[in-house]
């Protein structure tokens, strides 16, 4: 399979990015495990890549979300309330994927790649959450892949966003990272951690912003209180349909990120979390911090449309809607309450 990807340079506009895709690159054979039938792998080369429903989904107002480097802050600031509602009402976005994360490339269409995002499980595709990403935001980097396969990873864990730096002294800012970003650790020097990046070589992060683990399973298994404390880092973060980053989240992007950042895998979407997430039903009288609360149409019997996290004392934390930042509020046990699920096991 041939994949058009950006190598070197950082185009600042959609037209420039499209022009940069004129050169054709072929993913190395090593990116596709022999005999597995797995599609080629590429890596996200921007802080946060938004996964769109189709190449025709973005509107002119969405241009800052399509470039390399991406400008999530500018994008969010430029969206009106109607623009934000349009993302969900017109089904324009699906999810987001973070810097350095692999994606499977399923197909190409012009300047776009159809991808599946491993690590975001969904009934929509067994390989991972599906959708479309601008090719300008992807890179084929076998050296990065090899490093990621054998090195510990630095996990951005202590803040919603953190900076990647060009220098050990942490003075020259290179890229603003989202929480839950994972990059291979190369070395440690005092209060700085040297990490590898896709396409841009070695960079530095502050040791105060990351935890380093040899393997995913080395992330300490959380308690419900751990999940709640982590979730509170997102308070007042903007709501963004399809959002799953430290710049903005939707309801299930929020809950799945909180769990994943603490080493527990649950599906990306609210309905899949409730129905296919491997949790167990919990009565409202037995709720514990970290349990997820689900809401459904049809007096709680129809399609699940919302999820929140119970934090104790009859309160929950949630990414509610496009007009409301992440908030703590009283648990709603109204007619649309579907029930609660517990994903943590006793340790």
Question: What would you note in describing this structure?
Answer:
- With 347 residues, the protein is α+β, with helices and mostly antiparallel strands.
- The protein has eight helices and 24 strands.
- The chain has helices at residues 14-20, 72-78, 81-89, 142-150, 224-231, 251-261, 270-276, 297-300, and strands at residues 2-3, 25-26, 41-44, 48-52, 93-98, 102-109, 112-117, 129-134, 138-139, 153-156, 161-165, 173-178, 182-189, 192-195, 203-206, 210-213, 244-245, 248-249, 280-282, 292-296, 304-312, 315-318, 327-330, 337-342.
- A seven-stranded antiparallel β-sheet has the order 12-11-15-14-13-10-16, with helices on one face.
- A hairpin with an 8-residue loop joins strand 22 and strand 23 (327-330).
- The longest helix has 11 residues, at 251-261.
- The chain is globular and about 55 Å long.
- 46% of the residues are buried.
Give the amount of beta strand, in percent: 25-35%
Helix content: 10-25%
Mean pLDDT rating: 90
Strand order of the largest sheet: 12-11-15-14-13-10-16
Total number of helices: 8
List the helices and strands and how they pair.
Layout: E1 2-3, H1 14-20, E2 25-26, E3 41-44, E4 48-52, H2 72-78, H3 81-89, E5 93-98, E6 102-109, E7 112-117, E8 129-134, E9 138-139, H4 142-150, E10 153-156, E11 161-165, E12 173-178, E13 182-189, E14 192-195, E15 203-206, E16 210-213, H5 224-231, E17 244-245, E18 248-249, H6 251-261, H7 270-276, E19 280-282, E20 292-296, H8 297-300, E21 304-312, E22 315-318, E23 327-330, E24 337-342
Antiparallel strand pairs: 1-2, 3-6, 3-9, 4-5, 6-7, 7-8, 10-13, 10-16, 11-12, 11-15, 13-14, 14-15, 17-18, 19-24, 20-21, 20-24, 21-22, 22-23
